[in-house]
Structure formats: C-alpha cells, structure tokens
Amino acid sequence: MASIRNLTVFITGASSGIGASCARAFAAEGAHLLLCARRTERLSALAAELREQHDVKVHAFALDVRDHGAVTSALAQLPAEWQNVDILVNNAGLARGLDKLHEGDVQDWNEMIDTNVKGLLFVSRTVIPGMVERKRGHIINIGSIAGLDPYPKGAVYNATKFAVDAITRALRMDLVDTPLRVSSVDPGLVETEFSVVRFHGDRDRADSVYRDIEVCTPDDIAEAVVFCASRPPHVSINQVVIMPTAQASSIVKHIGPLE
Ligand code: NDP
Ligand code: 8X3
User: Fold this and answer.
1) Integer Cα distance of 82 and 117 in angstroms
2) Against a cut of 0.90, is the pTM above it?
3) Of 8, 71, 101, 117, which has the fewest beta carbons less than 10 angstroms from its beta carbon?
4) Cα within 13 Å of Cα(92), Cβ side
5) Interatomic CA distance for residues 239 and 104, integer angstroms
6) pLDDT (tens digit, 9 = 90+) per residue, 60-75?
C-alpha cells in the first residue's frame, strides 16, 4: 500500500453518506481533508470529529457544485496551504424521482444533470489543471451501477451516471501522457440518504428500498475509494464495481435471507 499520509484529499458532497465515510477513511490514513457540500453545519461537525480523532487538518466550506462561478471562486480563495489537491473525490450527486421518462419532472432532471454531470465537470475543470502542472494527482469519480446498467424509471439518473462513466474513461485518455490517475468507483445499493433525497423526503418509501436486503454501507464504498488511492504510482485501478452480494444487476436483487 502506498502511503496517503499528509496528502490533500478534496471530497465533494462530504456532509452525508459515501462522502462522509470517505472523509473518515482518508482521515484514518492520515490524509488532510478539503470537504464541501451545501449543509455546512454537518460539515463543521464532521470536521471537528476528524480533527479530534486523527492528527489531520480539515478545511470545510460551503459549495453548491452546480454553480460554476461559486466553484471557481471558492477554490481560488482557498488558503495557500489548501491549493494543491492531490486526490479529488467527485462524490456529490443525487437522484430525484423514479418515473417513466414520459411522466418525469423536468425540474428533477435539471437537478440531476446539473449536479451529477455539470457539477462534476465544473469541479474537475477547476482542480485538474493544477494537478497537471504539478504532475501529480488522482481523480476518483463516484459513478454507479446505474451508469453501467440502466433500469426502468431511471433514465435520467442512468444518463447522468453513464455520463460519469464516459467522462472517467475519456479523461483517463486525456491524461495518459501524465502521471495523473483517473478511477471510478461504481456502487450498487448503499444505504445512505440517497433514497430519502430521491423520494423528496418520503422516509417510508426510502426505507422500503433497503428492506429485507443486506445492502452495502457507505464505509464499504469508502474502503474501495481508499484502496484506489493507495496503489503505487504506476498502478491505476480504473474501475471498481462494488455491489451487495444480494444484488446481481441494477434490477436483479434477492429479497430475503441468502441461503
Ligand atoms: P447522500 O444523499 O447521503 O449524499 C449525497 C451528498 O452529495 C451529500 O453530502 C450532499 O450534500 C451532496 N450534494 C448533493 N448535491 C450537491 C450540490 N449541488 N453541491 C454540493 N454537494 C451536493 O447520498 P450518497 O452518499 O449515497 O451519494 C453519494 C454519491 O454516490 C452520489 O454521486 C450518488 O449518485 C452515488 N451513488 C449512491 C448509491 C447509493 O445507493 N446510495 C449507489 C451508487 C452511487 P448537501 O446536500 O449538504 O449539499
Ligand atoms: C444508486 C444505485 O440502483 O439506486 O446509484 O440507482 S441505484
């Protein structure tokens, strides 16, 4: 394992779920953390927890990744010691709605496309030039099984995650003549706030997604992200597809105990 101690890791969407677990997992390895999301109280609580439990620096700041101007100015205004990002984890993302395409809500579509595709692009466009200049960096995109295997009523979320897969693979080609690495970690079902957000706060409906099936935890995914980040410099983990044992594809899931 290559050490990630004292590297600077920038995680988008660190206020919850997979992003928060990644922050904890990187802090446990001694990395310093730049964390962003819109809910700053949560980020501040996480930052305090990480500073207390690990000997690491944490800088947390509010950012809506959909706002290109905010992305560029927030990153330009970072204190000098935080300017050199070594590892970027493009995690901020969401699903909104689960509808047949012809019945879908255009506002839901805009939110998914603006966050999952344009937000990821805005952050990448701002951070990667410095990595190229320093000849050092790793971009880890959180994709999804939904970006490899579409499912009914998921067309627009699927499309955004297919876009993440395309961006990951094309970016890797763009950077092939540099020491930079580009990975994607593509999970199946993970119990986080994802479904509460998808169903606009309907907790019962969200809970039903994870009922009677043992799904992945956000810590399972964070472990895979840290694995990608801690390979020796000549090794690139291009893609990790990480699923619950009880899920064989986007739509094939086993409900009930595994025998
Ligand atoms: P959560 O809802 O728990 O976390 C989503 C995170 O993204 C939050 O920290 C949220 O912060 C942040 N976020 C959302 N919109 C924005 C925005 N506009 N600007 C900045 N941050 C934003 O869900 P997960 O942890 O599950 O999701 C993380 C990633 O994992 C997403 O990309 C998702 O698509 C992907 N994924 C999730 C799976 C699952 O089953 N849970 C499976 C496969 C992939 P805040 O609201 O404070 O801004
Ligand atoms: C999240 C997994 O299957 O709910 O990306 O879309 S799924």
Assistant:
1) 25
2) yes
3) 101
4) 31
5) 30
6) 999 999 999 999 999 9
Domain architecture of the chain: domains with CATH: 8-242 (3.40.50.720)
Q: Specify whether the CB–CB gap between 192 and 18 falls below 8 A.
A: yes
What's the Cα-to-Cα distance from 38 to each of 7, 42, 144, 173, 183, rounded to whole Å?
A: 24, 9, 22, 32, 25
Query: Helices 218-229 & 17-28, crossing angle to 10 degrees?
Result: 50
Q: Is the CB of 144 under 6 A from ligand 2?
A: yes
Distance (angstroms) between ligand 2 centre and the Cα of 134 equals 35
Could you tell me if residue 199 is left (phi over 0), alpha (psi between -120 and 50 degrees) or otherwise beta? alpha
Two structure tokens written together for 42: 């949560």
Which of 144, 164, 195, 213 has most ligand 2 atoms within 8 Å of CB, for mutation? Answer: 144
**What is the rounded end-to-end Cα distance, in angstroms, of the chain?**
35
CA of 2 to the centre of ligand 1 (A): 28
